[in-house]
Design a protein that fits this description.
alpha/beta, six-stranded mixed sheet, about 15% strand, four-stranded parallel sheet, single chain, about 450 residues
Length: about 450
Amino acid sequence: MGDVKGDFSAWFQSVADTDERYPLDEVIYKSKDGHLLEVCHDLEALKKVPAEKWKRHFEKRSRRTEWPYGSGVWGKKEWVLPGIDPKNVVSMYEGHTNLFWADRYGAQIGLDDLWIKQCGNTHTGSFKDLGMTVLVSMVKQMISRGKDIPAVACASTGDTSAALAAYAAAAGIPAIVFLPRGKVSVAQLIQPVANGAIVFALDTDFDGCMEIVQQVAEKDGIYLANSMNSLRIEGQKTVGIEIIEQCDWKVPDWIVIPGGNLGNVSALAKGIDMLIDLGLITKKPRIVCAQAESANPLYLSYQRDFEVYEPIAARPTLASAIQIGNPVSIDKAIDALKRYDGIVEQASETELAEVCARADRTGLFNCPHTGVALAAMEKLVKRGQIKRGDKVVVISTAHGLKFVDMKVRYHEMTLEGIVSENPNPPIELPARYEAVRDEMLRQIETRFGC
């Protein structure tokens, strides 16, 4: 679909040696010297298409029904996987998520132009769909061409497993997920169970699950679906492109994103890199990576100007999906933050819980990871680093419905170690009109002063 023509191509390449290249259908995750790979594109071929023509091309495809270009990812197929056969694309119409103008919440914290990118408004409820559609599509193509791939597997703190299970089920490919037992929400656990994945709940944390899945991939030929597989990054990079497209190709001053395994940070920068390299924009936003104080190895490295990085033992956090002490994409993330004049900030458990509650009162419904990002942003606003008139986009990585247990406990005032400042428990009354009327009027007066 569209009037853009060209001989576009992409390949795996070592981040340390540009001469070390591999085809995208090769089962490989790291370079010879142990560095992560990245997907590289023939930019010279892409540059032959004028920037304005790319914009029109993407806009023409957006939300249409011609397969598979209506997807927010596959509408940019030439920039993602140019060589994929459309019949092998596994898509659930991912992307095109709402850019929510948070005017009431922004006014409360001193921002006039605050937006929340609602990546949780997607098929499995998180931004992980953006990357998984690309990875599973490539696996389907590899299998169709005779490659022996018995199953696809991932370690997960919840959202990755949900995305892998759903997309693999749609493709008819066996999926295996490794979860830390007792450390993911019920909503996150039931998603891969319902989609028919083989689910292992292991007595370890995410980092321990990651060790197991890498062994399975190396020794048993299972295809690895974690973000160290750079095919995932190709889909996730479209979030940055989509944000700027939704802003009428004008670049926000700041983009704030929560970080755990840190593939999302490097992916965000990679998408914006392509916009700059191909002339669609000329300005870079500043990137803020927000970490939970209980799982903050990147923040600790940032405090030392990135001169030293040490993995940590991540402690329990309400933001369970980013409870990661040894992120596999650390080098890529640090590189991205250096290039984008980045900042790393952290949020305590109380800070993330309270900001979720306060922002929810303005119409949002935030997951705890978004709470980490919002709390970090508020700190930068208070310090004057983010100015009132700056255009700020916060990436909400998952839907709040995946974390209702945390929200229920907050409003019941039973979250361990947290004294809820903004609880709103149900008011239990007898079923009598007079009792309801009196309490209703009292609540209106107390809450709204009217």
